[in-house]
Structures are given as structure tokens and as C-alpha cells.
Amino acid sequence: MIGEITFGQYYPGSSVLHRADPRIKLITSFWLIVVIFVCKNFFSLGIIALTAIITSLVSRVPMKMILKSLKPIVIILIFTAILNIFYTQGGATYWEWWKIKVTEKGVNTAIFTMIRIISLVVISSILTYTTTPTALTDGLERVLSPLKVFKIKVHTLAMMMTLALRFIPTLIREIERIMNAQKARGADLETGGILQRAKALVPIFIPLMVSSFRRAYELALAMTCRCYTGGEGRTRMKQMKVSFRDIVLILYCTAATAGIIILNIFFEAVI
Amino acid sequence: MSYVIEAKGLSHCYSKGTNQQVYAVKDIDFSVEKGELIGIIGHTGSGKSTLISHFNGLLKPSSGQILVNGTDIWKDKETLHNSRFQVGLCFQYPEYQLFEETVFRDIAFGPKNMKLSENEIKERVLRAADYAGVKKEHLDKSPFDLSGGEKRRAAIAGVMAMEPEVIIFDEPAAGLDPKGRKDLIKLIRDYRERTGSAIIIVSHSMEDMASLADRIYVMNGGEIAMQGTVDEVYSQGEKLRSMGLNVPEITEIFASLRAKGIDVPANVYTVEQGTEILKKLMGRCSS
Hints:
The complex is a heterodimer.
Chain A: H1 16-19, H2 22-36, H3 42-59, H4 63-70, H5 74-87, E1 93-97, E2 100-103, H6 104-130, H7 133-144, H8 154-184, H9 194-200, H10 202-225, H11 244-266
Helix pairs in contact in A: 2-6, 2-7, 2-11, 3-6, 3-11, 4-6, 5-6, 7-8, 8-10
Chain B: E1 3-14, E2 22-33, E3 37-42, H1 48-55, E4 63-68, E5 71-72, H2 77-86, E6 87-90, H3 103-107, H4 109-113, H5 118-132, H6 148-160, E7 166-170, H7 178-195, E8 198-202, H8 206-212, E9 215-220, E10 223-228, H9 230-234, H10 237-242, H11 249-259, H12 271-286
Parallel strand pairs in B: 3-8, 3-9, 6-7, 7-8
Antiparallel strand pairs in B: 1-2, 1-4, 4-5, 9-10
Helix pairs in contact in B: 5-6
């Protein structure tokens, strides 16, 4: 159950996007996400949707995997669509019953928001599918390094993120192990009210905390043994270099943005 | 029939229906009689842990049946829940499951889940602590203040306190020093003598198995490759080696002695046995 979450996972491959500089990927993904909210009508939104589709094709991540990343947000999608349909009013009325009215504007907003959210998730999952967690945090560290001016410890933050990502699967396995051990002693985790269920989590939560602290301590020790002293003076095995493909990636995003701005001007806004 | 646990045609399959479909265990027939001590050996990844997780219903078989005392444990929720108390499962490194404020309360966790009376719980905890060799003065301590070996005993007591008809130990001696290992084996043997309960041990140690088990199942690639008494299984050294297992070192030594023409038996599996025979042999030579 918990093991099936794909959002934020890496999908090994060797496409152009896999090989692109993580810094550029971070920047362009963030850029596209901002642009999603600039779209004002279906034509400009079409460009974003098209960009999302082209990018996923280029990444060579199977469509099945990309659709899988949408699975956790299906409920949010349905929920926002329903809210939008019934709460946004205006334009021609399609359907009416008692106080409930479905209007042109409501339907448009619902579809618009859905496409927006889907593109948002698709673009960000392509980022994580094509970038290893290490490369991602490395890239983030570099992108955020200007913040050092404000005395923010960017390296420490990036290291914390790397470690957190690294330990997610370990913790999941640990939880499963402890759950099995307590179930074997007759712990009932599935029935009862909220209070009872919360209580039933104690036998799982405490051993989990204990072993997490133990792990953290061991990890700190191992890092100290390898002379880790923080970001100062650290060099990298993999140097990041901006290459031709990264420039193409930037141009590609610029083109999409330009298209969106032009279409925003030429066509009437829907939202 | 007097089988406590019986598995019939048990298979477990991960990612069923996809192209990544893998059988963790396949077509397993397995049985434990009352009071019997069964050993399961096999290479890492041979499906031992998957198999034992079926015996108390932590995993549901993809096909086949698990019968505990003749009843299918997946018959209904009630039966499934009760099977947890009939079949005690003690995982690898059980000390990581301790959570209560005191050792006493941790051992009482199982009996409490059985909804027993306060008195009954207390009796069982004291009895289990005695079986597992948990010192009386430790019962009021926090489990986190105990040493590694003591923690493990406390955790084992937690399973014994449910007084199951079968206890399954998954690598009970993992991570212990030789003395701890020896003590633990003695503990299991004593427990068996005192309660007459059936025991299943999963282990890598061929030598420990030789001194403990009545019958042995050897698993390989999710299937049962061999089964029988210690003699029947250990005499097929070649076959064991082909599965990445080894006969005990002492057996190897005796085999090379035989190869040198010295008249010693081939079925020596424990150091104690070996020492006895060598003593006799030496006595004969010197006299």
C-alpha cells in the first residue's frame, strides 16, 4: 500500500532530460509551473498541456508511470472540479435544478483548473522521474546558493533533504517490520474508533522513533568518521556543466512562454 | 490428525497479474506435529521468511491453504485473529519491537490483546519471564535500559506469554556472540521440555539445527528442496552445497578423516558428538 506511491520517485533512463543539468531542470520546471498560472485562456493552456505531453514523450518515461503519479491526486481533482462547477456562476446556464445551477463559466473553470493541476503534477513528476534524488538536491543547493548572502546554510539544508529522501524507503520497510511484529502479538490495527486506532499506533510509533534515533546517531557517527564537516571546502565528484542540450531546454521553455503570452493577448480570457 | 500447522499447496506471488510476477514461495506442503521441533534452512531469499509469515496470517496465500489445528485460518476474521495467539511468531531482532514503559507491561502486551483477566495476565507474564530467563528485578525496569541480550529475552518472553501451541523463531541467535547463542539454544530446548510446545526455527546455522531439530525442511528458490530427519538431509552434502548451503564444519572434518582411511562415522553433525568420538578414538590409540 505505502510502497505504491510513485510521486517523487526516480525512473532510470538515458533520455536527453535524464542527462540534462539538474540546475537547469529545476529552474525550467519551476518556470513552467509559474507559467501554468499565467495562462488566461484555453489556447494558452493548450500550449502548456502540449508542453507537458512533449516533455513526457522526450523523457521516455512510460506513460503508465506518469499516469500513476496522477493517482494520488484524483480525489483532489474531482473535488475541485465539483466545487468549481457549482460555485462559479456566469454566462449561459446549461442545467438548473432548485438552487443548483451549472453555468458556462463554471464548467469552463472546472476544466481549466483540472488541466492546470494535471500539467503541474506531470511537469513536476517528470523532474523527479528524470533526476536522481542526489542530483536533485545537489542542483537545489547550487540554485539556492545565492541565499548564502543572507547567512542561510544552503548546504546543510540540501544535505538534510538528501538524507530525508534517502531514508524514506528505509523507514517504510521499518514500519512494515514493526507492524508485523506487533500484529504477531495480536495487536489490532484495523478496527475500533479514531481514539482506539490512535492508541493502537503507540506500539508502532515508539519502536520506530527509537530505531530512527539509533539510525540517526549511527549515520552521524559514520559521517564524522569520514571527516564530514559541512559544506565548507567540499568538492564534487560530478561537476555540473551547462551543455548544448541545456540551452535547448531553456529555449524550449522560452518558446512555450512566448506562445502563451501572445495567445493571452490575442484571445479573450476565460478565467 | 494431530497436525498443529499444516500448509497445503501454499503459493505466494508478488505483483500478481503483471509481467513482474514473482513467486516468493511455490506449492509448499508443510506440516508440524504437536510438540515437534522443525528446522527450516535455506539461502537468503529462498522464501523462508515469506513462508513463516503465512503461518499466523500476516500474509495471505495467493493459492493454497494454511490449517491451524485443522481449521483454515482465513475462514473468517475471528479465526484469523485467534491464529495469532495459537502460532507465536518471533521475528529476527525481536528487541526492536519493545515499546512499553516497563518490561512487565511489554511482556503483557500479547496476553492483554487476548483479553485475559488481570490475574491470568500476571501469571502468564511471570511464567514467560521465567521461561525466557528474564530476571525478576528487570520486570519493573524500562526495556530500553536493558542490555542487548536481555532485551532479546524480554521480547521472546513477550511472544511466549501468549502461550501459543507453536512458536516460530526467525534467526533467534542473529547478532549474538557465541555464548549468547549457546544460552539461547539452551533456552529454546528448556522451553520445549517444560511446555511441550511445538517449535519452528529458521536459521542459517547448520550446526545449531543438527542438535535441535527433529525434522528439517530445506528451502531453495521458494520451494521445498529437501525434507527429513537431520541424518537424511545432512548426508546429502553435495545437494546442500549446490543450494549455497554447507554441512557443519565438524562433518567436513570427519569426512576428510574418513577420506584418509580413519574409521569414523559419517553422521557427525555437532562438535559435542565429534569430541566424544575423537576421545574414544584417542583412548584406543594410546592404550
